[in-house]
Amino acid sequence: MQDTYFDMELLRFTTAGSVDDGKSTLIGRLLYDSKTIFEDQLEAVEKSSKHKGLEHVDLSLLTDGLKAEREQGITIDVAYRYFATPKRKFIIADTPGHIQYTRNMVTGASTANLALVLVDARKGILEQTRRHAFIASLLKIPHLVLCVNKMDLVDYDQEAYERIVMEFKRFAAKLEVPDIHFVPISALKGDNVVTRSESMPWFDGATLLYLLENIYIGSDYNHIDCRFPVQYVIRPHTDEHHDYRGYAGRIASGIFKPGDEVTVLPSGFNSKIKSIDTVNGSLEEAFAPMSVSLTLEDDIDVSRGDMIVRTNNQPEVTQDIDLMICWLHPKPPVPRAKYYVQHTSREARTIIKDVVYKMNINTLHRITDNVEIQMNDIARVRLRTTQPLFVDSYRKNRFTGSLILVDEATNETVAAGMII
């Protein structure tokens, strides 16, 4: 039994949709109906709603403060919100819908377990719906929920809902999203968001909050391929611990136990795990995404940027990397320009050797005749790095299959990549 707030399972989800599809109202409804907003916030929203002459409480006001700042030119790339129910903790990454914010969605969705895509029941599947679904599949988000919103404005018509579901299923057949759910909702009225709708007796599926609370995310992490990027070497230098040498970091994937035979990359030296330590004592096993300190039975030279892996299951060690990138910077890449690549805890210098194609993320077609990369473009490229990286394909391991490129001169992050 999970008995404390800190032990509760965390679900990260990203919300996306086109303009005016009710995203702010939906997030506000989730916060309001799950009783996770403060009374003074609610009072302020009620007052503002009355001031605007509205009969109902405008829940979008709970989340629109950040939107106002964004419109004033204050850069809030992705707004994160937090709430909890007795079953789970949640982090919402709220990303803008326009094409010029593709990079923001990639940023917000990169760590998500679930993508929540909103569709206006009157407008159906739009270009932006397809774009968001494509990015969710590109980023290998395991679960997708399509919320058909504003059902109250089509008189809760079952046919209107089913038409949208069928159209989306046809499009999603080209994508790789293993788990898709559909919910007809009215964020404004609260239908099927937290409580079941009496206006849609024809829908016998789960409410949105029930899905968020119960969708199984235990298998979202890779528990097969053991990868431990070393972030820090612990040498206490005290009389009590003078011979302690621990390697601290966050387990990227897999399950580690004392006695496991491991190999340290890039040196290739083998050893066995002596102990797995945390601030609360030693563990008999540890798994992703836990942060721990490993000690080894042999005195091997291990430093930040190295990776501890199981001897019989190792990543690819390579300096030539084939990947899909989303370009995040207003300045396009310069041919043969040098960048830093940051991969897990390892850094190296790199050049973009080749641009294979750009992706039209509305039609899913490949563009090969004009491969000049601009901000928000998604493209397949090849890198050459100065030092080997220890990589898995992004499809297999989202943590060891992703990297970022950093401009050497400005130290700005210019691209996020998914290794093929």
Explain the layout of strands and helices.
Blueprint: E1 9-16, H1 23-33, H2 39-51, H3 64-71, E2 79-84, E3 88-94, H4 102-109, E4 114-120, H5 127-138, E5 143-149, H6 158-172, E6 179-184, H7 208-214, E7 227-229, E8 232-234, E9 246-250, E10 255-256, E11 261-265, E12 269-278, E13 281-283, E14 286-287, E15 291-296, E16 307-310, E17 316-327, E18 338-343, E19 346-359, E20 366-367, E21 378-391, E22 402-407, E23 413-419
Parallel strand pairs: 1-3, 1-4, 4-5, 5-6
Antiparallel strand pairs: 2-3, 7-16, 8-9, 9-15, 10-14, 11-12, 11-16, 12-13, 12-15, 17-21, 17-23, 18-19, 18-22, 19-20, 19-21, 22-23
* Residues in helix, %: 10-25%
Domain module tally: 3
- Secondary structure class reads alpha+beta
Overall pLDDT level: 85
**Separation of termini?**
40 Å
Main sheet properties: 8 strands, antiparallel
- Poorly predicted tracts of residues: 68-76
Number of strands: 23
Number of helices: 7
